[in-house]
Amino acid sequence: MANQLLYDPSFVKQLFDEMSATYGVVNLLSSFGFARRWRRQCLRAIPIRPGDRIVDLMTGMGELVPDAARRTGGRGSVTAIDISPRMCERARRHTDGRLPCPVRVIEADVLASDIPAGSADLVLSSFGLKTLDASQLRVLGRQIHRILAPGGRLSAVEISVPPSRWLRPIYMFYLRRLIPFIGALFLGNPDNYRLLGVYTAEFGDCSDACRALSESGLEVQMVSYFFGCATGIVGRKPAGDAR
Fold first, then answer.
1. Residue 137 belongs to what H/E stretch?
2. Tens digits of per-residue pLDDT, 207-242?
3. Starting from the edge strand earliest in sequence, which strands make up the sheet with 230-236, in order?
4. What does DSSP assign to residue 116?
5. pTM for this predicted structure
6. 108 CB-side CA count, 13 A
């Protein structure tokens, strides 16, 4: 498959629409719970304060939203964005009426959203960065810079290719071969789940994303989880940056 198609927003939208019915259980079981653990670590990597206005980009099924909402409390808010309408439907069911603060789930392309400038104290993202190529990551960096208020924070996490010579082939075999098999067991399309390994191999780790965010004017650093099987980005918009 040509890389250009792999990163086309309409292709990504269709892919996650098709995976929406099985993605949650396959993601949990195939990662042996590590996906949930890495999401928790993403949230713990930065302070979440009562009253924070949080934007969760590429929210998927809204997995980060409940914990984020509880930590920001009744004076805060969470806006979750995803390009897949079916993922958005599941995110709404996942978050509707059970959380202490207002939650909005918006179907939109994060590269062209109309979230108001300076309206977020905190931007989050889990497991969506790999679906963006280098040029799209630069657009995302500008979008996050625009959305964040001065002094605002960000935290992201993504499945990555571990640097270890002995771990890398085992991990990539697992992503490319076993996860599609697990997806098929739960009546998902194994070809769709096979693409997650393709995205991960192309993505590598968060270093390119970190560079794109830095070029946009954000202060960021990359972090590693479980020997580099996942990497993340933590950072902030400088307090004096009113752009």
1. helix 134-147
2. 999 999 999 999 999 999 999 989 999 999 998 766
3. 103-107, 77-82, 53-57, 120-126, 148-159, 230-236, 219-225
4. P
5. 0.92
6. 15
